[in-house]
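Example 325.
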Amino acid sequence: MSAPQTPSVELKPTGQKMPLVGFGLWKVTKSECANTVYNAIKTGYRLFDGACDYGNEKEAGEGFHRAIKDGLVKREDLFITSKLWNTFHAKEHVAELARKQLADYGLEYFDLFLIHFPISLKYVDPATRYPPGWQYDGKEVIQTNVPHAETWAAMEKLVDEGLAKNIGISNFSGGLIIDLLRSARIRPAVLQVEHHPYLQQKELFKFAKLENIAVTAYSSFGPQSYIEIDFPGAKDAIPLFEHETVTKIAKTHKREPAQVLLRWATQRGVAVIPKSNNQKRLEQNLHCCDFDLTEEEMKSFDSLEQGMRMNNPGNYLDRPIYIFA
Ligand code: NAP
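Predicted structure in complex with NAP:
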């Protein structure tokens, strides 16, 4: 299969183009990550979505550098996203973490750097534990008193210093975005949130559009990604790959259900970053913009909305009371 021409979306603050289809790095195993990234580049992926929390940034970097060394791509052909973890929200830690992550990747800049969650947790020195995860001491989730405006101002400095070309946010609600915009000198280029037919986020996306913030969907296959980590409710839902609305459209277009789910999102102007540890599926996912769903097919997804949010820290953190440090 030859590499497809992937459409892109323009990021308003800089005019930079972001591919509408990229590759997600969460749960890409450390031992396979360098090879997976290399093969994904060879297959035609140009956008990679990483994070401190995924614990595989060094290995992903090895994949990038091997691909660059072998002449498959140049650095400027790649669009590399990473994220600020919750324990680094204080102004004195934002650049510290971004520089560490860049060093891990062996990169000079990120194309996009996102605040991973609007949640500020107590600092953990990378020398003590990295990535730090949610629990401060393996048990307690300890919040710290850092306002989002402070974190955002430190993110803006990353742009000033050339460490990130664009900055953005993830897992922010409309209200939190409005609050952030109040003091933003540089507006967020991208909002990355969970999005699939069971969680369509229509109002939030309408608001993002009004504010010229591009949207990236994560977990485009809904509960699928959460089965392997035993998330509550993931196994009980009808798998989207088996939902008759999806299988019927897949059959009509002679496509895989996964491709239909990705096309439903991209046809709404939403970027996608599917992850796969399997070369065949990874190829399928990239080839998701070379067919179109009809208006009627797009509309048929409306009835799948369930407000089903898998990645909701309020649900999966088992200690209900956060303690301010
Ligand atoms: P996803 O891409 O929706 O789904 C991944 C799951 O689907 C895996 O079980 C994968 O299995 C399977 N799969 C992939 N392609 C398939 C295909 N063509 N046919 C059948 N099964 C397929 O899940 P995700 O990892 O949750 O989300 C994607 C990316 O979004 C992440 O990697 C990460 O970069 C980002 N993300 C961000 C946040 C955030 O808080 N900002 C949260 C979650 C995810 P195989 O690997 O075996 O193919």
